[in-house]
């Protein structure tokens, strides 16, 4: 009963490097979301997806790329990491006007 | 920009006391949700209240919604040490995306 799994849990990388955060769900929920959580800001939506091959920008999409070729996976890529992208990243799934289910997050540090 | 704003930012109470936190938002909503986050973990859903509802209960949790004032409150009764966590309100403006506030950190002292 894994539900939603994020990997890695912790990642340290350098500025300018590409890094991909993985999110996998076992429920077949249509919606998937990526948030970042920073002190004083709560969670901010980066990108979301309504179904496979359908993605759209959230509040803070700059510097990030997503794809969703399969319903169960929703990877988030930082194409050229910057220090301002140091954060905790959460993936979530949902089925519309229902509560979202969150993973345990990836703590990303960019040096 | 954040839709919800929680108040207070932090709350410290004695075990057995009640904890109340408030959330204000700016635009019309379809529903409002409350989540809990324990340290180092993801958010866990607590209660969803729809725009046509005024009050909802779940165990020791009571949520109210006043759409005329664009505000909601979460009451935790008879608090326990395990209630120590951050609590977030999130609004859904009928587009399936949630907009979160910055959260209220609750510490329950034994």
Structural description of this entry:
- The complex is a heterodimer of chains A (about 110) and B (about 110).
- Chain A has no helices and eleven strands.
- The model of chain A has no long low-confidence stretch (mean pLDDT about 95).
- Chain A has about 110 residues and is an all-beta fold.
- In chain A, the strands form two sheets. In chain A, strands 2, 4, 5, 6, 9, 10 and 11 form a seven-stranded mixed beta sheet that branches.
- Chain B is mostly beta strands and about 110 residues long.
- In chain B, the strands form two sheets. In chain B, strands 2, 4, 5, 9, 10 and 11 form a six-stranded mixed beta sheet that branches.
- In chain B, strand 9 and strand 10 form a beta hairpin.
- The mean pLDDT of chain B is about 95.
- The interface between A and B is medium-sized, with 26 and 26 residues.
Labels describing this entry:
heterodimer; A: 111 residues; mainly beta; 7-stranded mixed sheet; 4-stranded antiparallel sheet; 11 strands; B: 110 residues; 6-stranded mixed sheet; 5-stranded antiparallel sheet; 0% helix; 56% strand; globular
- How much strand of chain A? over 45%
Q: How do the helices and strands follow one another from N- to C-terminus of chain B?
A: EEEEEEEEEEE
Q: What's the multimeric state? A: heterodimer
Uncertain spans of chain A: none
* Category by helix and strand content of chain B: mainly beta
Beta strand % of chain B? over 45%
Would you kindly provide a brief summary of this structure?
The complex is a heterodimer of chains A (111) and B (110). Chain A has 111 residues and is mainly beta.
């Amino acid at each position: 009963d894994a539900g939603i799994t994020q990997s890695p849990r912790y990642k340290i990388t350098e500025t300018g490097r590409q890094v991909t955060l993985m999110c996998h769900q076992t429920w077949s929920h249509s919606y998937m979301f990526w948030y970042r959580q920073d002190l004083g800001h709560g969670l901010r939506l980066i990108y979301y997806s309504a179904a496979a091959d359908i993605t759209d920008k959230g509040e803070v999409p700059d510097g990030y790329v997503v794809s969703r070729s399969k319903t169960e996976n929703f990877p988030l890529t930082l194409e050229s990491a910057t220090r301002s992208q140091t954060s905790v990243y959460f993936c979530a799934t949902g089925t519309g006007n229902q509560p979202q289910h969150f993973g345990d997050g990836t703590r990303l540090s960019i040096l | 920009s954040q839709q919800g704003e929680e108040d207070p930012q932090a709350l410290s109470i004695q075990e057995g006391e009640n904890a109340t936190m408030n959330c204000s938002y700016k635009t019309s909503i379809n529903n409002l949700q409350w989540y809990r986050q324990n340290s180092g973990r993801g958010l866990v859903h607590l209660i969803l209240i729809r725009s046509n509802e005024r009050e909802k209960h779940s165990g020791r949790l009571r949520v109210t919604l006043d759409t005329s004032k664009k505000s909601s409150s979460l009451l935790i009764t008879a608090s326990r040490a395990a209630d120590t966590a951050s609590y977030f309100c999130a609004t859904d403006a009928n587009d399936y995306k949630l907009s979160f506030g910055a959260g209220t950190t609750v510490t329950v002292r034994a």
